[in-house]
Amino acid sequence: MKPRSRRLLVVLLVLALAGVAVFLTTRALRSNLVFFLTPGQVLDGEAVGKTHLRLGGLVQAGSLQRDGERVRFVLVDARHGIPVVYRGILPDLFSEGKGAIAQGRLDNSGELQATEVLAKHDENYMPPEVQKALDGSAHPAAKPGAGQ
Hints:
- The chain is of the alpha+beta class.
- The protein has helices at about 5-30, 40-45, 130-135, and strands spanning about 35, 55-60, 65, 70-75, 80-85, 100-105, 110-120.
């Protein structure tokens, strides 16, 4: 084999390996993407085509129902609410009227089947995305320092 042919073969092999590496990396990243949405965005159709999502908002007062390890509640923003079903133990700081994020899949009935629930970690903290979604709402938790 001539040196020129050998160099061309090496370059083509390197390009093929780089293409496979890029393909595998994008596939792995795509399967791990989780989009953050508010209930209003979900009901506006922004969740269409997304298999996993994070839904953030406030836990609606009076919506928390416990049945063993199965928990149902509604996450709300300024305009809408989405029911959430979660099987497991909720974080200690999880309570009605406080900010929470539920991660999971949206089923055909419009409920979020959560695999993970996160609660805010202190009295004044609210995830920036949730605060942005609540800005301008009439909910008292939307005001900094309120709801204490």
